[in-house]
Design a protein that fits this description.
- The chain has 267 residues and is an all-alpha fold.
- The protein has 3 domains: 90 residues; 83 residues, no CATH class; 53 residues, no CATH class.
- The chain is built from 13 helices and no strands.
- The radius of gyration is 30 Å and the shape is flat.
- It holds the Pfam family Dimer_Tnp_hAT.
Length: 267
């Protein structure tokens, strides 16, 4: 799973760079394909056994005990009775766990990021002002064609729009859209293209993490808390980047100073 962490983090970023993410998808898939080999497995299995021995963990799988069926007792069999050579522990884990996990990961990457999606991600990046292909019609054609936008109109709008935006401080697609919006009559196709670009790149990962955290907040010990306290705790969890920067010592000091008659000594 560690091989896909960089790709997972990149895809969940709020300010995701789609062109970089597309290249990372390809490189991650190639890495996983390279891991599906006997040489890589032998190295990994050696590491697994070393770690298991260090922690006194037995990783040997129990072998199935085979015996001759009672129904053929007293008979002479001229055919094989089904006895097969037992695979060693390394082969069993490789065939039943290691290779199947890699195959599932590769199939999911291929299903979610086919060539059409990768081309779309790279085309979307041409809407970003920091991209070297910013508002390049040849790069935007794939994106425009997919959403039935007139590519001829787009080509005629990109060049004057790019000149109009020169000299302006643009850091994101939102900044570009805010500059183009008052000129929507002059650049209708480009305005529509930017709207779609902003919609597609929205990531729901942050929202999903916030909802997943609610089960850790609303525990059975907090079922009787008032709504305002629950809201405040949820806000601290959702805005973790800000809450983690709070100096707890200063909070305790401020809380202590609010009432001089407290019987609990906090510090």
């Amino acid at each position: 799973m560690g091989m896909t962490k960089a790709l997972s983090d990149q895809l969940q970023k709020c300010d995701i760079v789609l062109a970089v993410a597309a290249d990372l998808v390809v490189s991650t898939a190639e890495t996983l394909k390279g891991m599906r080999s006997d040489t890589t497995w032998k190295q990994m299995y050696k590491y697994i056994t070393d770690v298991a021995k260090f922690h006194n963990i037995d990783i040997e799988l129990p072998k199935r005990r085979r015996c001759r069926p009672n129904v053929i007792e007293g008979f002479v069999s001229l055919e094989s009775s089904g006895q097969r050579e037992c695979l060693d522990n390394s082969e069993v884990i490789k065939v039943n766990i290691y290779f199947p996990v890699l195959d599932v990961m590769l199939s999911e990457i291929d299903r979610r990021f086919n060539q059409v999606n990768l081309d779309l991600m790279k085309s979307l990046q041409a809407c970003h002002p920091t991209s070297p292909n910013f508002l390049d019609p040849s790069c935007l054609n794939t994106f425009a064609s997919m959403y039935d936008l007139n590519t001829d109109f787009l080509i005629s709008e990109c060049m004057p729009a790019k000149r109009t935006l020169q000299g302006k401080e643009l850091q994101s697609v939102v900044d570009v859209f805010c500059q183009i919006l008052p000129l929507a009559t002059a650049f209708p196709t480009l305005k529509r293209l930017l709207q779609i670009s902003l919609t597609i790149s929205v990531s729901t990962a942050q929202c999903e993490r916030s909802f997943s955290a609610l089960k850790r907040i609303k525990t059975y010990l907090r079922t009787t808390m008032v709504e305002q306290r629950l809201t405040d705790i949820a806000l601290l969890s959702i805005e973790r980047d800000l809450s983690c920067s709070i100096n707890l010592e200063e909070v305790v000091t401020a809380f202590q100073r609010k009432d001089k008659n407290r019987t609990i000594v906090l510090y």
